[in-house]
């Protein structure tokens, strides 16, 4: 009888779902384009074309729909982030180059990936367009229906074939539950938008005023700059000092929130895919091990190749154990990088706002404007790709380190060779200690005999002035030949440390792994710097506050020019109270438009009979 796991895989190997997700992606473009056309029809263009232009026939309809502002959006951030999370499965298909909508030659694969990316973006465009649309009553209905379609199709796909061929039970659910959770959140979000828009439409709530250019946290930041700095009375905790301190005057833009959310989900999916591949490779290795075991049993452990086969079996067993054991530390490393990227983003933006560019290489102090604009378009996608490839590379490096520990420390003890292992380890540590000790001894001799005394008692170190020159030249001569051999070890240690740091920090796009002067070759770091400059120039609170003041003054002047009774506000006589001025404007409006009187709210002292008499007088 077959094991349970094997039976599950065989059952799901023949499972065929009635829903083809790739085919559904193609057909989803039809409702997507329909929603885009409706929202575009509702969106009015600010500038109408001339009569000789054919688009004049459309009037001011069919404006350009914007999914979201990638630079200056600070509201509704988590909704946009969850909408990005709903695209995670399709992003992973694009990342693995498994989604190929067209069959074109190999040399044109870049165009095929571009077309696939545009198709995926267009199929998920309604999520963002409905969230950012001004016409919330219509957009909430359209967004809810479109999200419900995706949710229903995904649930149907999971329910028909819940198991898989690698992990076994509920393998499909493991892949699709993040997208289902994001789609469920979007359904709730669109339902909340519909209820709120409906209440406004029925007059139960007031319409939200036009969104200001200046965000609340930006205004608070400017106020904080204008206040007199006070000494900190409250002592910061260890978490605030070493890890992160909340700043109410700073908010991450929607692009950063969406990038981090999508990176988390894609990292999870990548780990699941990697584990599925590991399960497949492990099963193949188990078959190979069974063949080796059969050969060893057949030869009764007396074959010529038996020791080699035993070592191969041990290598396979160690590799499988180390690979599984290093999944968690590699995952935690990349997760910590995602949080650290947010911390570095806030730190770098604050330094740029303060005019501090010393943390940047010299060639990045004035980057090209076109490169910065392209960088902000590249950053989010590149950050996710760096995290995924970084996880794989870190996992491989940690596995190699784990195997070195196993073969260097653990297996000798298992094979009763602990004393030999300790002896070799002691000799190696002693050798390295002697080399390091001689290097430290050179430093001590140089500080004690070949430098002149301190100029003052407050000096931290001796001045760079030679003393005992003859002894110094003899010291250099005799150590010259020894340092040639010592330099070989220093060169190898430099190579080893560079490889370890480079592979360990490969996922960190905010830090370059190139040497000084070659930072421009690091395209990921260049994208990071360009993105910082775009955000700095477009979301700087001082600049946005200045623009807000200009816009407010312009609106006030425009209102003054269009107001018929502007002279009453700025007469040379005594100042009129705001209440009196409002009542005067109300009187003038009611005189010019008497039918507005019947729509006014009656005071508690007036009866319905008086209102009927007033209406009869107006009709007469």
Automatic annotation (TrEMBL):
It is a multi-pass membrane protein. GO terms for biological process: vitamin A import into cell. It is found in: Cell membrane. Keywords: Cell membrane, Membrane, Receptor, Transmembrane, Transmembrane helix, Transport. GO terms for cellular component: plasma membrane. The chain crosses the membrane at residues 24-42, 135-153, 173-191, 260-281, 322-343, 388-413, 425-451, 480-507. GO terms for molecular function: retinol transmembrane transporter activity; signaling receptor activity. This is Stimulated by retinoic acid gene 6 protein-like. It comes from Rhinopithecus bieti (Black snub-nosed monkey).
């Amino acid at each position: 009888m077959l094991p349970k796991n094997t039976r599950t895989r065989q059952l799901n190997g023949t499972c065929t779902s009635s829903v083809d997700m790739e085919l559904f992606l193609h057909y989803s473009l039809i409702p997507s384009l329909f929603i885009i056309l409706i929202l575009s029809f509702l969106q009015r263009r600010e500038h109408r074309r001339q009569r000789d232009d054919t688009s004049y026939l459309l009037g001011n309809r069919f404006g350009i729909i914007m999914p979201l502002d990638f630079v200056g959006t600070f509201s509704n951030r988590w909704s946009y982030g969850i909408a990005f999370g709903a695209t995670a499965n399709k992003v992973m298909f694009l990342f693995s180059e498994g989604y190929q909508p067209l069959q074109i030659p190999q040399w044109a694969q870049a165009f095929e990936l571009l077309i696939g990316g545009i198709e995926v973006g267009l199929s998920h465009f309604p999520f963002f367009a409905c969230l950012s649309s001004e016409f919330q009553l219509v957009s909430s209905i359209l967004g809810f229906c479109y999200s419900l379609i995706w949710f229903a199709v995904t649930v149907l796909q999971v329910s028909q074939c819940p198991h898989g061929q690698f992990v076994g039970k509920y393998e499909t659910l493991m892949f699709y539950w993040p997208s289902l959770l994001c789609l469920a959140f979007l359904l709730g979000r669109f339902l909340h938008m519909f209820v709120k828009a409906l209440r406004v439409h029925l007059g139960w709530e007031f319409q939200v005023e036009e969104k200001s250019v200046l965000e609340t946290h930006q205004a608070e930041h400017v106020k904080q700059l204008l206040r007199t700095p006070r000494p900190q009375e409250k002592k910061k905790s260890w978490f605030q000092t070493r890890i992160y301190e909340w700043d109410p005057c700073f908010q991450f833009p929607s692009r950063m929130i969406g990038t981090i959310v999508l990176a988390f989900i894609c990292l999870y999916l990548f780990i699941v895919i990697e584990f599925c591949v590991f399960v497949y490779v492990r099963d193949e290795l188990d078959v190979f091990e069974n063949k080796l075991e059969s050969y060893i049993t057949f030869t009764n452990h007396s074959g010529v190749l038996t020791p080699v086969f035993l070592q191969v079996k041990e290598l396979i067993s160690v590799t499988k154990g180390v690979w599984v054991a290093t999944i968690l530390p590699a995952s935690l490393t990349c997760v910590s990088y995602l949080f650290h990227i947010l911390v570095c983003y806030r730190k770098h933006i604050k330094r740029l706002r303060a005019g501090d560019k010393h943390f940047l290489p010299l060639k990045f102090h004035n980057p090209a404007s076109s490169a910065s604009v392209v960088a902000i378009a590249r950053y989010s996608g590149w950050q996710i790709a760096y995290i995924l490839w970084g996880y794989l590379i870190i996992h491989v490096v940690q596995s190699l380190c784990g195997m070195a520990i196993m073969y260097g420390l653990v297996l000798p003890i298992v094979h009763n060779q602990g004393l030999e292992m300790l002896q070799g380890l002691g000799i190696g540590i002693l050798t390295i200690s002697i080399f390091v000790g001689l290097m430290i001894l050179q430093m001590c001799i140089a500080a004690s005999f070949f430098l002149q005394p301190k100029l003052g008692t407050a000096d931290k170190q001796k001045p760079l002035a030679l003393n005992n020159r003859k002894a110094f030249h003899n010291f250099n001569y005799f150590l010259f030949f020894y340092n040639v051999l010592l330099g070989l070890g220093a060169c190898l240690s430099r190579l080893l440390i560079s490889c370890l740091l480079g592979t360990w920090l490969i996922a960190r796009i905010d830090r370059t792994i190139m040497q000084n002067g070659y930072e421009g070759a690091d395209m990921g770091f260049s994208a990071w710097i360009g993105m910082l400059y775009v955000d700095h120039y477009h979301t700087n609170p001082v600049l946005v506050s200045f623009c807000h003041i200009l816009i407010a003054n312009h609106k006030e002047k425009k209102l003054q020019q269009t107001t018929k009774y502007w002279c009453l506000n700025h007469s040379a006589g005594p100042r009129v109270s705001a209440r009196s001025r409002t009542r005067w404007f109300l009187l003038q409006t009611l005189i010019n438009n008497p039918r507005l009187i019947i729509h006014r709210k009656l005071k508690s002292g007036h009866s319905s009979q008086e209102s009927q008499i007033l209406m009869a007088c107006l009709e007469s």
